[in-house]
């Protein structure tokens, strides 16, 4: 998997590149120090995933993500930043980022997120996933809608357990550890959950689950 690193701190880019270069499944093909340079480097290098900081000079990461998705739609953008305030989170997701992680993320989790992003899957830090679900609940409460239709094929108890953990932003490996299952088994359950919910990715599955009251969350 080809990755482009975008961050205005050269030392952080160097450290991150060193960390990722030791992984056989990842090739760091280049770096950029601002969003404008990121667009040029991405066009020249054709990465699979751009690991994008948000607060940068010249062109910030959110504007760069929006232009990158418009100009190079095959490239996935994964936000990696210091802050998880609501404004940054929803601006990045609206711009087209497939995921949002904080810079204190564990290295294994970062690698999993990059691989998932390359597959087109959504990847959210648990705190960010909670914000997305909460925002959706707010929007749902301000505009009453007809009751969603029940699932044609109900989820099994195990699939519900997987869904509730998935909605907190946990990776397949973390779900497997929590439920004492093999990673392959969890992957199969996630595939079934997405299919039954009619969701294209994990974020949409979490939102759909909230609509159907499958997460066990209190309603106001």
N-to-C CA distance:
44 Å
- Low-pLDDT segments, ≥5 res: none
- The mean pLDDT is 85
State the CATH architecture of the largest domain. Answer: 3-Layer(aba) Sandwich
- CATH uppermost class of the largest domain: Alpha Beta
Instruction: Please state the overall shape, judged from the principal axes of the Cα atoms.
Output: globular
Question: Quick recap of the structure?
Answer:
The chain folds into two domains: 2-124, Rossmann fold (3-Layer(aba) Sandwich), CATH 3.40.50.2300; 139-211, Winged helix-like DNA-binding domain superfamily/Winged helix DNA-binding domain (Arc Repressor Mutant, subunit A). Helices cover 53% and strands 12% of the residues.
Label this structure with key terms:
220 residues, alpha/beta, 2 domains, six-stranded parallel β-sheet
Can you walk through the features of this model?
The protein is an alpha/beta fold and 220 residues long. Helix 1 links the parallel strand 1 and strand 2. The protein has a six-stranded parallel sheet with strand order 2-1-3-4-5-6, sandwiched between helices. The N and C termini lie far apart (44 Å). It is globular. The protein is 53% helix and 12% strand. It folds into two domains: 123 residues, Response regulator (Rossmann fold, 3-Layer(aba) Sandwich); 73 residues, Arc Repressor Mutant, subunit A (Orthogonal Bundle). One of its GO terms (biological process) is phosphorelay signal transduction system. This is Response regulator transcription factor. Keywords: DNA-binding, Phosphoprotein, Transcription, Transcription regulation. One of its GO terms (molecular function) is DNA binding.
């Amino acid at each position: 998997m080809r990755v482009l690193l975008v961050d205005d701190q050269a030392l952080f880019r160097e450290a991150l590149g060193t960390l990722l270069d030791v992984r056989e499944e990842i090739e760091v093909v280049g770096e950029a120090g601002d969003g404008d340079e990121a667009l040029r480097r991405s066009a020249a290098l054709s990465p699979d995933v751009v690991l994008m900081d948000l607060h940068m000079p010249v062109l910030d990461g959110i504007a760069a993500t929006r232009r990158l998705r418009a100009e190079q739609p095959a490239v996935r953008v994964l936000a990696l930043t210091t802050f998880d305030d609501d404004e940054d989170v929803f601006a990045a997701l609206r711009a087209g980022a497939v995921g949002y992680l904080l810079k204190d993320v564990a290295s294994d989790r970062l690698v999993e997120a990059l691989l998932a992003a390359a597959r087109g899957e959504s990847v959210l830090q648990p705190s960010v996933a909670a914000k997305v679900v909460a925002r959706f609940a707010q929007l749902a409460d301000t505009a009453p809608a007809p009751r969603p239709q029940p699932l044609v094929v109900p989820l099994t108890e195990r699939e519900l357990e997987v869904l509730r953990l998935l909605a907190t932003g946990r990776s397949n490996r973390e779900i497997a550890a929590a439920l004492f299952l093999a990673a392959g088994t969890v992957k199969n359950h996630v595939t079934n959950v997405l299919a039954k919910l009619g969701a294209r990715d994990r974020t949409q599955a979490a939102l759909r689950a909230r609509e159907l009251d499958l997460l066990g969350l209190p309603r106001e």
